[in-house]
Write a structure and sequence with these properties.
Blueprint: H1 16-32, E1 36-37, E2 43-45, H2 46-53, H3 58-63, E3 65-68, E4 74-77, H4 82-91, H5 94-97, E5 101-110, E6 122-131, H6 136-152, E7 158-164, H7 171-184, H8 191-199, H9 210-215, H10 228-243, E8 248-250, E9 262-270, E10 278-284, H11 288-291, E11 299-305, H12 306-312, E12 326-330, H13 333-348, E13 353-355, H14 362-371, E14 376-380, H15 382-387, E15 389-394, E16 400-404, H16 408-416
Parallel strand pairs: 1-5, 7-8, 12-13, 12-14
Antiparallel strand pairs: 2-4, 3-4, 5-6, 6-11, 7-9, 9-10, 10-11, 14-15, 15-16
Helix pairs in contact: 6-10
The chain binds adenosine monophosphate.
Length: 419
């Protein structure tokens, strides 16, 4: 038997209802906040991700699904959505009409990471991006939106962690101080960090290896290196979060793995997911639009891990699983055809109606109605046809009523739709 690929998964009925419910809540909230949906392809030219995510990142170095297409062009299954949204914003000159745009997208991402609980090779994200706003108000709105969404989805134990990464003006001084510090503790770092410290020292702050974390406890903090504008921006972000009553902690070791982030960066973390404690992450990426060939337009955004969200939500799939409103049990050729017509017409009326497609006995049809937990059963056989009436049974109360076959669909609809 052919099995699915390691790190990939099926989302089956019984579980998928939860995904749908989470998606509905997220979409409604995003649209209430003025975000417009954008759909982008799952594949792009490799170059787009290499340039936007950065050559020295784990994603580009070892996690991308990259292959030549039949003409030899290198293409990559998207490991994240921001690069594609920026490409689309530039390509379609969406900034020409109004540089301020808010987008969201929901879909699968692909990273060849080591699979474990909460970490998959195909996983899903909800992304939101705000273009054209330099003010920290946009970052605060994104964090507020995330915390509000998690509240609506009954996700417990979440906290916003925030930091500022400064900007191109203040970061070099911090990087220099960090590099000096990293040299002094070099012998305590893992092999990856030894390499990172020379190529991309910021990433060492992000390492999850316990020995590295311990060695980094006294690392310099970027917050001490912010220039006056970046400092004012970060103070304002914190003040506004307090005004909006969003609980947060300043986490000086919070850096994003991607090179184009600036100023506010944030992560929503939870205690309930073990090692994979981040449910959402994001921040400002002011340099990316121009880096990818567009005008100099600031931007900020977030990505929520959809898989992790469904593991954390207090909502349950069975709240949303649709059971048949009615099962039509028919005996005899004529009744079966009539039943089939009714089932189709009822479906058209928004009523979930099932029947037995074979020619099973009444007993086995009733058993199936029970197994499907149908709310009602409609019984029709030769006797009923002769009388011109079918029998409608409420499976919960066991009450039975006769329903005239003439105009049955309308009458049944009236009787079983919950008022
Ligand atoms: P990132 O794009 O790396 O900032 O990730 C944003 C969010 O996506 C994270 O907070 C996770 O919740 C989720 N995520 C990232 N990688 C994976 C993965 N391999 N499997 C499941 N969720 C992931």
């Amino acid at each position: 038997m052919i099995q699915l690929i390691r790190g990939f998964k099926d989302i089956l009925p019984g579980e998928v209802e939860l995904w749908q419910a989470v998606e509905t809540v997220a979409r409604e909230l995003l649209e209430d906040f003025g975000f417009k949906e954008i759909r982008i392809p799952v594949m792009e030219r490799t170059e787009l991700f290499a340039r936007s995510i950065g050559e020295d990142t784990d994603i580009v170095e070892k996690e991308m699904y990259t292959f030549p297409d039949r003409k030899g062009d290198l293409i990559t299954l998207r490991p994240e959505a921001t690069a594609s949204i920026v490409r689309s914003y530039i390509q379609h000159r969406l900034h020409a009409k109004d540089p301020v745009q808010k987008f969201y997208t929901i879909g699968p991402m692909f990273r060849r990471e080591r699979p474990q609980k909460g970490r998959y090779r195909q996983f899903y994200q909800i992304n939101a991006e705000i273009f054209g706003v330099q003010s920290g108000l946009a970052d605060v709105q994104l964090i507020y939106l995330l915390v509000t969404l998690f509240g609506r989805l009954k996700v417990a134990d979440v906290k916003a962690h925030i930091n500022s990464l400064g900007c191109v003006r203040c970061r070099p001084k911090f990087k220099a101080a960090l590099s000096k510090f990293l040299e002094s503790i070099s012998d305590q770092l893992c092999a990856n960090c030894k390499r990172r410290k020379d190529r991309n020292p910021l990433r060492v702050l992000d390492c999850k290896v316990p020995a590295c974390r311990a060695a980094m406890a006294d690392a310099p903090s970027i917050i001490d290196y912010l220039d006056p504008e970046c400092k004012a921006d970060f103070d304002e972000v914190q003040r506004l979060l307090q005004v909006l009553k969003v609980p947060f902690v300043v986490d000086k070791n919070l850096v994003r793995g991607l090179d184009y982030y600036a100023r506010t960066t944030f992560e929503i973390q939870t205690e309930s997911l073990g090692a994979q404690n981040a449910v959402a992450g994001g921040g400002r990426y002011d340099g990316l639009v121009s880096e990818l060939g567009g005008p100099d337009i600031p931007a900020t955004g977030f990505a929520i891990g959809f898989d992790r969200l469904t593991e954390l939500t207090g909502l349950k799939a069975d709240q949303f699983y649709r059971k048949p409103d009615i099962f039509v049990a028919a005996l005899g050729e004529k009744s079966r055809l009539l039943a089939f017509e009714w089932v189709c017409a009822l479906g058209d009326e928004g009523i979930n109606a099932e029947l037995d497609f074979g020619g099973k006995s009444l007993k086995s049809q009733m058993k199936r109605a029970d197994r499907l937990a149908a709310a009602h059963v409609l019984i029709v056989g030769d006797d009923e046809l002769k009388k011109g009436e079918a029998i409608l049974r409420n499976m919960e109360t066991k009450e039975q009523v006769s329903v005239p076959i003439n105009g049955l669909v309308e009458i049944v609809k009236g009787k079983i739709i919950k008022k």
